[in-house]
Amino acid sequence: MSISRRDFIKAGVAGTTALGLTSPLIKRKWFQVAAKDEKTFEEEKEKFTYHTPNCGGRCAFICTVRDGRLSLIEPNTWADNRFSTICLKGLSEVERVYSPDRLQTPLKRVGKRGEGKFVPISWDEALTTVADNLKDSIDQHGGESVLISLSSGVEHDYKFLNTLLGTQWVCEQGIDIGAANGLEKCIGGNVYAYIQNEITDWVNSNTVIMLGCNLLETTITDSKFFFEAQEGGTKIISVDPNYSTTVSKSDQWIPIQPGTDGALLLGMISVILKEKDWYDKEYLVKNSTFPFLIREDNQQLLRLNGEKDDVDKNPQLIWDETSNSAKPFNEKGIKPALEGEFTVDGVKVKTVFTALKENQKQYTLKWAAEKTDIEEDVIYELAKEYATGGPAVLGWGFGGLDKLSNADVVGHAGAILATLTGNLGRIGGSVGALTHHAAAWNAELNPWTFPKKFESTPLEMPTSDMREKDSSVKAVINVGNTLQQHFANLHKTEEWIDELDFILTIDPFHNTSVNYSDIVLPAGTAFESEHEIVNMQINRSHVLLSESVIEPLHESKSDFQIEHELLAKFGLDKHLPKTPAERIDHLLDSDDPALDGINVKTLKENNFIMRLNVPEEPYRGFMDQVYDTPTTKIEVYTEDLVDFDQALPNYEDATEVYVGNPLMEKYPLQFIQSRSRYHVHSQFTNVDWLTQLDDGPRLDINPIDAKARGLKNGDTIEIFNDRGTFKGKCKFTEAMRPGMVRMREGWWTEHMIAGNLQNLTNDTFIDRHYKLTNGPVIPFNDTLVEVKKT
């Protein structure tokens, strides 16, 4: 049966029923947005934009507007048609934009913080109140007294406000950086340590090993590349405690004891080192710091002049086999020894590779099997497949192991595995975070600049530490839902909130963070603006432009306009671009040849999408074997962590979730907040189109654990530990490993029967994490709880 889009919409509910296209799952309200009389259809307009939530999908949209109302969303056509796609979240924006949770007017708090009691006020009163409070704080305590806390799902970053007022600024500090902390030290690169090669390169991989990554839900628009690789012969192996959607489509599932992924990788390293022909000696000598010499006396790397300094002035030393002496690693004509122990000027030294082999003796195959609950032969075959099968990808997601306190060990061990097997800077290789399609061709933009007297204040400490340590912050500008989402242990956050002088929230929706605010400003969604052009980004090797689809609803204003009007209260708006289009054209007016011919005008002429002037082949990082490290090599030995016995990766248990923890006698279940196809963090939790499929906030529990607690499917339960509690419904599933319970992340307090998910999450920081590039990880999933029927 062939049905045109226009006929489908004209048919309405009655027509689609006659066509047999309705389902019992579909509520009538799905069609209410589009149900207009036929005359309206003759006046419809098409608008172009893209999806901004931080799922990484960045689907480009053609939006149909009827009588000024968003009525239909379809995928736009990319220059590379493989990306012309859309998912449920994008389609559901038709409902979400008109949510009853929309903030309709500026609000002023009249109750206690957290009560959610407000009165409506005018924009002028709201902006004046905000400006007065910020001025008072800056005059008394300096720009550092103001913190802009940004949700990563908000595309407009408020960096103009940050720079011109000299505030601190943060976006999800401590989140999605657990494993990256270990990998980034070795190779440099981006904050989140995404894989180096584009996912479209997986067709050239022999093996893809996914650690706790549910790619087919969290980056659903990349699923086609998963299946293309698989159909082309790539073997995809999922290592996961639970049976996820991605596990169900993988070639092999290896269940693992939660929190022990580091032990698995260390066991694989030992297997590869034992089988000498499984690692690439030439690659190690040429591209890594494995030949560098470690001093026996202080475990630091031996340098030309003793103390650490600039690599060019004071390089690390290797043992040159030609001259039989220590030489700078960057001296020409040398032949570095990969293994050995030597004496240099009376100091005993050994190569990093020799130290690794010695350190790995404790991590036997038997030890790894006992720790991970994976059989020895499975670990052996996994290591063999990875090391000898050809190009391979090793990666992880952000919703599992990355939220444990020992995640950096996984990243460090992963870097060593990729180095041993030559899977960095290789077609079909890669190591790192697998989601968000972050590896792609990019371009250097021309930044908007300000007079030198204006500069932002660096973040003085992790935001979670501001709750207990002496901090300069007196006022917080919360953009999004960061007070719920960016901190564990909500009760501790609430104590800090009560001590702050002023809190402003900017968001389209009345989310949980709004309730703690003194002033609330209603922002438009990404579909709304006073300006014709809204924003631009580079994604998947393309430049995407967005235009205003509809006028701002209610009394909301776009983020661009809010920032502009707020800075006008300080007399600083003269430094800003007058329109988003002016800013975008400035950004694209770059010397980078990848942007030649791309500007607002040409983007509009090309349906708001143009491919960068870059090669057609998949993006692959570090193919020149030059890494973003001081030595430009893969730096496998981390001197900064010598005092923590982590210069080379050493296994350690997580802070709470580990077998043998005495706390498990009281709280025997691991609580995790998982990501799903229906949410992006706390976004879309208020969309009926999706919650009717997701079944609302439910605690997934294995029937074995439920039976032991006398629970029935659907019972109201309390989930609790010493930090706090919340209540919800339970849902039985054998996809969950016994000993674990799970709830989809992001549910607002109002969605719960009582409490908030963050009331009981773990906020313990590890001392060594302060030495890492991105600072401490918030161990949301490193949380033990108990469950009981209420």
Overview of this protein structure:
The chain has 790 residues and is α/β, with parallel strands linked by helices. 25% of the residues lie in helices and 18% in strands. It is built from 23 helices and 30 strands. A seven-stranded mixed beta sheet has the order 5-4-20-19-18-6-7, with helices on one face. It has a six-stranded mixed barrel with strand order 24-28-25-27-26-30. A five-stranded parallel beta sheet has the order 10-9-8-16-17. A hairpin with a 4-residue loop joins strand 26 and strand 27. Helix 7 packs parallel to helix 16 (407-420) and helix 11 (261-274) runs parallel beside helix 16 (407-420). The longest helix is centred in the N-terminal third of the chain and has 19 residues, at 123-141. The protein starts with a helix and ends with a strand. The model is unreliable at 1-40 (pLDDT under 50).
Number of DSSP helices?
A: 23
Instruction: Profile the largest sheet.
Output: 7 strands, mixed
Share of residues in helices: 10-25%
- Classify the secondary structure makeup into a structural class: alpha/beta
Distance between the termini: 52 Å
**Regions with little confidence, pLDDT below 50 for 5+ residues:** 1-40
Radius of gyration computed on alpha carbons? 27 Å
Mean pLDDT: 93
- The tally of strands reads 30
- How do the strands line up in the largest sheet? 5-4-20-19-18-6-7
Shape summary: globular
Q: β content, as a range?
A: 15-25%
